[in-house]
Amino acid sequence: MQDNKFVQNAPLEQSGAKSKATLGFTSKVLLFLGLGIALSTIVSICAPLAYQAFGWITLIKDGSTIGIVEITTPFLIFIGCISAVTFILMLVNQFYLFARGKTEILMYVPYCILMGLLVSFTSMFVSYYTFGLALGVSALAMMLMGAVGYFSKGRLNSIAIIGIVLTFGSVILSLLNFFIFGNAYIMWIITFATLIAVVLFVAFDFRLVKEYSLNGNPTTGVAIYCAFRLYNDFIYIFIRLLTLFSYITRDSSN
Predict the structure, then answer these.
(1) pLDDT 10s digit of each residue in the chain, 254 long?
(2) Beta-bridge partners for 70
(3) How distant is the alpha carbon of residue 254 from its chain centre?
(4) Full-prediction pTM beyond 0.90?
(5) DSSP assignments along the chain, one per residue
(6) 155 exposure class (CB count in 10 Å sphere: 0-12, 13-18, 19+)
(7) C-alpha dihedral (177, 198, 124, 69), degrees to nearest 10
(8) With contact defined as beta carbons under 8 Å apart, do 66 and 98 qualify?
(9) Do 48 and 120 touch, CB atoms closer than 8 A?
(10) Residues with Cβ within 8 Å of residue 217, at least 6 apart in sequence
């Protein structure tokens, strides 16, 4: 009788252990994601202050309008260097580490700091309110689509089709607009289409987190890799929304 009871309880104990491991891995991914977003946010807010302190730029603020009076050559060189290093590091993370299915904290943290510097080139033109609004809406979009991807029991085929169509459509329309049309309204259509596509792909990246957590005992490197994918989704959404909200607030102030 005791042996039978032990056999009956074994699947329940295994299920509980698996659920605990799944929750632990997901929490670890979200922790690294939050770390990356926090680093980029702090850097993007503080960097413009440093640019002014170094005398690289001169910002002027008139109400809600922020503009640059002067840009020095060292600042332009700095932008070029940061952009090049960030691009190289992104390629290393995206392709080399993609094949391994994991990354390291020493690759992740510098990448997040560099992305914060890139974001600062845009954030220095907007108010703190606009910055916070874009940050909040981006986080909300990540949470909503993350819940869809993580808790949905389906295969997300319809979301995949829509995301792929929007992505390829945006690429084709971008080429046509660049070589033929040159229309600003088409650029806005492309912006919204790519933004929606990335928001949809967030569901797949959160589903990936769930699949990793259910298959064996994933390492910290795998958790950082999943956080890296989600971080890239967040940054793209945030930059797009920051640009959009800056235009809206600028137009309303005029």
Answers:
(1) 445 554 445 454 445 555 666 778 999 999 999 999 999 999 999 998 899 888 888 877 655 455 666 788 888 899 999 999 988 888 887 776 665 666 778 888 999 999 999 999 888 888 888 999 999 999 999 999 999 998 887 778 788 888 888 888 888 988 888 888 888 888 888 888 899 999 999 999 999 898 888 886 678 888 888 999 999 999 999 999 998 888 887 655 55
(2) 58
(3) 31
(4) no
(5) -HHHHHHHHHHHHHHHHHHHHHHHHHHHHHHHHHHHHHHHHHHHHHHHHHHHHTTSEEEEEETTEEEEEEE-HHHHHHHHHHHHHHHHHHHIIIIIHHHHT---HHHHHHHHHHHHHHHHHHHTTS-HHHHHHHHHHHHHHHHHHHHHHHH--S--HHHHHHHHHHHHHHHHHHHHIIIII--HHHHHHHHHHHHHHHHHHHHHHHHHHHHHHHSS---HHHHHHHHHHHHHHHHHHHHHHHHHHHHHHHHHH-
(6) exposed
(7) 0
(8) no
(9) yes
(10) 21
User: Which residue bears the tokens 């560099």?
Assistant: 114
